[in-house]
Amino acid sequence: MTRRADRALPSIPSSTRRWARTLPIFIAILTASTLGIFNYQKASSSIVNSTLYALRTSPQARELLGSEIYFRDKVPWIWGTLNQLHGNIDIGFGVKGTKGKGWMRFRSVRKSRMGYFETQEWSLEMEDGQVVQLLQEERSDPFMNTALQAEAKA
């Protein structure tokens, strides 16, 4: 079978309709993926791990939540700002234990460029609405470096 070299070219269908249908789907998938990646980065940060560890070792939290304190959801969503570079941490996420569930909130700021972070709030809100301030005056800040604590006492 031979083809003639001077034949008419086939018509090219317009792809505008295809773009109009697939572009919103592509943007939705891209947005969901980006949000998931940023949330994964927050969830695996040392700040979230430290606050979860401090929650596990807190006597008040263990009394309310029980043992085996971990994220409430299988895929934890970390709400808020986690910006260590600019000195602003204000996060919250769901937690659960063997006795109950709650919402942990942590807020810490660094007032000067080379200063230390100061914890302003570390609280646990239970499902029944009870709010417990885990950062108390008689207990030292569990997020402060022990060398800094010794320096502050001297």
Provide structural commentary.
The chain has helices at residues 16-43, 46-57, 59-65, 146-153; strands at 70-71, 79-83, 88-96, 101-110, 117-126, 131-133. By secondary structure, the chain is of the alpha+beta class. Strands 1, 2, 3, 4, 5 and 6 form a six-stranded antiparallel β-sheet that branches. A hairpin with a 4-residue loop joins strand 2 (79-83) and strand 3. The chain is elongated and about 90 Å long. The mean pLDDT is 87.
Distinct helical segment count: 4
Would you identify the regions where 5 or more consecutive residues have pLDDT less than 50? Answer: none
Strand content: 25-35%
Structural class: alpha+beta
Can you tag this structure with a few keywords?
36% helix, 6-stranded antiparallel sheet, elongated, single chain
Question: Outline of this structure?
Answer:
With 154 residues, the protein is of the alpha+beta class.
Topology overview:
Layout: H1 16-43, H2 46-57, H3 59-65, E1 70-71, E2 79-83, E3 88-96, E4 101-110, E5 117-126, E6 131-133, H4 146-153
Antiparallel strand pairs: 1-3, 2-3, 3-4, 4-5, 5-6
